[in-house]
Request: fold
Amino acid sequence: MNTIYRVQSGDTLTKIARVHCLSLKELLAINPQIANPDFIDIGQPINIPINEQDAEKDLSIEISDSSLPKWYLVARKEMEVGVEEIRGAEHNPRIIEYHQSTTLKASDDETAWCSSFVNWCIEISGITGTKSAAARSWLQWGKALPEPTEGCVVVFKRGSKPWQGHVGFYVGINGSHILVLGGNQCNEVNISSYPKGRLLGFRWPNV
Reply:
């Protein structure tokens, strides 16, 4: 099973391979879309195998598993359905529905929607979210967790501006990276990995 890693500033394929305990040859074998290993772009998605011994939980979760938070199971179902942006002038109505859970209420699937997705999943579960389309708004929501638990909200910094960020649901650990189930990850709902160094916090509702 693979997850998605997005290229960061200063990355090379050799560096990415080393961080994930792979040889460059192994990394290229699962990324046949890379035509020239000397040229990768910031934000480019790279397939990374999930080390199941390092992952904290089995990723095959059933909606009937009551030991996990309801909002997280809702998010898993959205991933199983395969929600993704539609190229061109058409917009995915499901993503527009996510946006309606925020005060921004965007009407397209190009507007950043990671926070809209988290808000929608939380609200579908009967809990009030932040109602904000800003990822970092979640740092003021609920309560901080000193240690993560599967399904908790996880917030990351992104870019160079203090308001930029990314938010999703914590899945587990894969080496030096955190596995996140979220929206607007390579334009879809999926599980992607983010460096631990970008972590801003783990949050849980006040319930």
